[in-house]
Amino acid sequence: MKVRDLAALSPGAEWVVVGLPDEPIAGAYTSDMLSDVLAHAPPGGVLITIQAHRNTVAVAMHRGLRAIVLAHHRPVPRDMAEAAQAEGIAILRAPADQYTLSWRLHEHLRDEGVVR
Question: Checking CA distances to 106, which of 30, 45, 47, 56 falls within 20 to 30 Å?
Fold first, then answer.
């Protein structure tokens, strides 16, 4: 699965920042606690969260994440989008909840043999 394929996780999902669409996804992590993300998110992965602010991008950059998926179609502040664009980190807004997005992403990654 590549970053560009994330939009298939939820009908009505929309790209805020495309990032690097051809980068492969190496895993995923779901959390709203950024210190938890710093400690446990897999490099090359995707963060599923409701935390829509610039600090989320800073954490994603530090962990080497490829994308942030915002659940519940959270609005994205301009400074968050600008930071993500500068760092090449994709941001996708999706209407689905975190559980649903996590489950769907896990299914895709499992089918590709990225996770068990």
Answer: 56
Residue 32 exposed, middle or buried by CB count within 10 Å (0-12, 13-18, 19+) = middle
For 41-58, write each residue's pLDDT tens digit: 999 999 999 999 999 999
Are residues 86 and 63 in contact, defined by beta-carbon separation less than 8 angstroms?
no
Q: What's the pLDDT at 114?
A: 85
Q: What pLDDT score was predicted for residue 76?
A: 98
pTM of this structure: 0.96
Task: Tell me the C-alpha distance between 12 and 38, whole Å.
Answer: 29
> Residues 85, 59: contact at Cβ < 8 Å?
no
How far apart (Å, rounded) are the C-alpha atoms in residues 18 and 91? Answer: 7
What does the domain layout of the chain look like in residue ranges?
3-111
Q: Which CATH number does 3-111 carry?
A: 3.40.1390.20
User: What pairing do the DSSP bridges indicate for beta strands 28-30 and 46-49?
Assistant: parallel
